[in-house]
């Protein structure tokens, strides 16, 4: 009798242990998890045969704690999203931005990092700045203004000479020499130089001078603004509020990402899509585009560790706040809940802060 009760107790104990194991691992009754990723330093860094990075570390820690078996599958970014939607893979460990559109197609774990998009531009060399300065003087608006300026000098110079030639022959001589005197006086007066070597004495001459002085002051101010605009039209500002100035320019981003969707929704006219960050930055370096927009930590990491990108800088412009998370196939809701809970627990540890600091990132 005792032997029978002992055997029954042993069976119950074994069943309880198995039940506990299943509750710890919500994926225990299925095959090995297929985990897709695309390199996105510093979150997923491929160094020869070694895969490391913040997301890689976090996933391995979660998988170990939940006793999940998995295989890592390198994939193209767009293919990874499509495969996740159709169930070809079970998990994506990329730093995916949580969006309403994506949430319809896949589950997201709890966010483990917050960031924003920013703007990368190629620095302009001194020679290019000189060329831009020279080109500004051939700007159509500037040439139009210059033509109007010469016309004003000619008309008012001719009028001044006409009214002064008889009463003031010492300053406004007769004939062609007198016309030149009038043009010289008009130019000096219009530009507010005022040498004083020539001055009107008649009532009509002084009236012409008054109109020229006040009208010329307004015109010169407008022409100066036109020149300044022509000299700066090809230069991007570093004003944090200058985000909208890029709408009319050729810009790039990674295709099918949160940043590219954000730019499309803001009506960017000339947006080019690239498969990777490296392709986009290369296009920027080669001047195929004027700016490349993407996630700030990824851009900074790439530029800082690639000496060929030393001519590219990040503007102090921040937009489109993003929350990163792992993405899970829709059929694995229980798995998503278990992973989310474990991510929250890991984020509360000092170890998580150390990992972020290792990759020069701030805590969420």
TrEMBL record:
Keywords: Membrane, Signal, Transmembrane, Transmembrane helix. It comes from the Bacteria. Residues 1-23 form the signal peptide. Pfam families: Ion_trans_2, SBP_bac_3. Residues 32-362 form the Solute-binding protein family 3/N-terminal domain. The chain crosses the membrane at residues 142-163, 208-231. This is Solute-binding protein family 3/N-terminal domain-containing protein. It comes from Ulvibacterium marinum.
């Amino acid at each position: 009798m005792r032997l029978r009760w002992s055997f029954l107790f042993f069976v119950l104990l074994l069943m309880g242990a198995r039940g506990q194991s299943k509750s710890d691992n919500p994926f225990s009754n299925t095959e090995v998890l297929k985990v897709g990723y695309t390199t996105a330093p510093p979150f997923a860094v491929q160094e020869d045969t070694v895969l490391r990075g913040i997301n890689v570390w976090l996933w391995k820690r979660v998988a170990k704690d939940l006793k999940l078996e998995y295989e890592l599958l390198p994939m193209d970014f767009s293919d990874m999203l499509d495969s996740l939607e159709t169930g070809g893979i079970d998990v994506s460990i990329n730093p995916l931005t949580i969006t309403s559109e994506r949430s319809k197609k896949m589950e997201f774990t709890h966010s483990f990092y917050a960031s924003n998009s920013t703007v990368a531009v190629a620095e302009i060399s001194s020679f290019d700045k000189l060329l831009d300065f020279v080109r500004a003087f051939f700007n159509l608006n500037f040439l139009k203004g210059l033509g109007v300026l010469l016309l004003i000098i000619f008309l008012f110079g001719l009028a001044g000479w006409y009214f002064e030639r008889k009463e003031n022959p010492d300053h406004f001589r007769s004939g062609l020499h007198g016309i030149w005197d009038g043009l010289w006086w008009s130019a000096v007066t219009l530009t507010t130089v005022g040498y004083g070597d020539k001055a009107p004495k008649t009532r009509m001459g002084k009236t012409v001078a008054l109109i020229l002085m006040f009208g010329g002051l307004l015109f010169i101010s407008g022409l100066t603004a036109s020149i300044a605009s022509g000299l700066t039209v090809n230069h991007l500002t570093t004003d944090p509020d200058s985000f909208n100035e890029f709408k009319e320019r050729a810009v790039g981003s990674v295709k099918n990402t949160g940043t590219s969707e954000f730019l499309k929704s803001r009506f960017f006219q000339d947006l080019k899509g690239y498969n990777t960050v490296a392709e986009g930055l290369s296009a920027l370096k080669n001047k195929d585009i004027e700016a490349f927009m993407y996630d700030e930590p990824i851009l900074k990491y790439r530029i800082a560790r690639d000496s060929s990108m030393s001519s590219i800088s990040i503007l102090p412009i921040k937009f489109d706040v993003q929350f990163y998370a792992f993405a899970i196939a829709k059929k694995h809701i229980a798995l998503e809940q278990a992973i989310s809970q474990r991510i929250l627990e890991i984020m509360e540890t000092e170890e998580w802060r150390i990992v972020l600091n290792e990759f020069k990132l701030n805590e969420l």
